[in-house]
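Kindly review this protein for my students:
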Amino acid sequence: MKAEHRHELKSNDLALWIANFPNWAKENKNYIIYAGVVVILTFAAWLWKGYSEPKIIARNKVQLTNYVNAFEKSKIDILSQASSGQDISATSIIPLASNLRTFAQDSKNKYMAAMALLKTAQAIRTELHYRLQAVPEDEFKAKINGAKTTYAQALEKAQGDPTLAAAAKFGIGLCEEELRNFEQAKNIYQEITQNPGFEGTAAAAQAHFRLKTMADYQQTVVLAKDPKLPEPEKSIIAPEPQTTMPSIDTIAPNLPAK
């Protein structure tokens, strides 16, 4: 078949289809409307996602920052009230821990969720540290184990961010130490200091320091009693070093992690 003849046949077929299009459109009206709606909705969803995601991320950053700042402020308030004999540790910190946990559960960004979980675990332990009265041993163990579980959840979400991952692992070590599982704590600190990926992180430096001083925390320290002061309550909580955490902006990428 010659090329001119084939072109003529194609042209005739196209002309025939165009001529019959009104009838075809009438017969398939519902299908055309449905397909058009799907295309419009798909485009609208894509457009809205691209427009709303940056706003959602920015709003979540602000919310998490507010929670973290409120937590840090609560520690100052607790110490201030403690000087006058008032214990507000539970009423100040427990609600914040709950808010941080809820944020972590709802967040679509795994690094912001990890940060929130780290602060949740820290809040659980801080509430125990800041109590004016001695903590019952069964309650102490239950809450520290809960904090350890929360640190483990943070570690799972923090994969890919060495700073957060090292901080979560260090938190697990602190929990083991407070539960008097000193060998487990020592192994965790060694894993942190020997991991090249954690080099340069605050948690690596803290783990190194903890390895050097852990023996001091295992000893019973007896201080000379001042007759002017009342008998102090005994505490089984190990002292906690200062923990430097990354800012919200440094841990949150521009888009939520998959």
In short: The chain has one domain: 20-216+244-251.
